[in-house]
Every structure is written in C-alpha cells, then in structure tokens.
Amino acid sequence: MKNKWLVDEKIRWCWLSLGGASLMLQDYLESQVPADRPGGGVSLCFNCEDALAIYREVTTRGLEASEPEVGNGMWVTSLRDPDGYRIEFESVTDVPEETKLSEVKGRPGARQEKKRDESHTQG
Questions:
Q1: How do 3-7 and 43-47 pair as beta strands?
Q2: 3-state secondary structure of 91
Q3: Which of 16, 93, 97, 115 has the fewest beta carbons closer than 10 A?
Q4: pLDDT tens per residue across span 24-38
C-alpha cells in the first residue's frame, strides 16, 4: 500500500502499487451513493503519464469530463459511463493542491510534461 486515507480508523481511500501497475480504491459514504444507477458510488482510478492529455482528448471528442484539478499531488479528471461508474485519470504533478486547470497560467501541464521528457532522456 503506497498511500491511504483513514477516517475513524477505517481506510476510506488507498493507493496500491505492484511493479508498474497502480490501483486506487475509495469507499463512499452511504449518504453519497446514488440509488438510481448500478455504478453509483463506484470509482475506477487509473494512474497515467498525462491526465491532462486524456482530458483534452475526450473533451475534443465531445465527451463530458470534469475540469482537471490537483488532489493528492496529482492532476485528476473524471468521466461517467452510462451506468454511472466514475472513471478517473490521474497523473503526478508538482502543481499546488486544489489548483484547477483553468487557473494555470501559460502552458497547462508544462511542469508535468517537462518531468516526463527528462525521465525519457535519462539512461
């Protein structure tokens, strides 16, 4: 377990990693689970290299996605499938917590992209 969030001594969110794969799991509060959709209250979170690129791609294709925002040191954007399952894409960044993409001046994600480019040129 790479990271976790505890509420009343119960794991509400965790980040599991093994090799190159990661999985995040989150338990919703009972009051937040919608009763009218089978996927209500379920989130699938994918760590990726560039969540901002995925956001741009899906919105260019006409899909609705949440505005990317930084949480837990990652850009996060999400979509919902027809059954209500929430699908999140997250990528590591050094942009300050709770920053929204619309608040970033200059080239969005530049710090994130620079880090990725540097890691590909090393070795």
A1: unpaired
A2: strand
A3: 97
A4: 777 766 676 667 776
Identify which of 41, 45, 40 has the alpha carbon closest to the alpha carbon of residue 16: 45
Q: What is the pLDDT of residues 36-80, one digit of tens each?
A: 776 777 888 898 999 999 999 999 999 999 999 999 999 999 999
Question: Residue 123: CB partners within 8 Å, gap ≥ 6?
Answer: none
Please enumerate in sequence order all residues whose Cβ is within 8 A of that of 33, keeping only pairs 6 or more positions apart, or say none. Answer: 40, 41
Round to whole Å and give the CA distance between 82 and 88: 15
Residue 39: other Cβ atoms inside 10 A: 16
> What is the span of the domain harbouring residue 71?
3-121
Strand partners, 80: 86
CATH of the domain at 35: 3.30.720.110
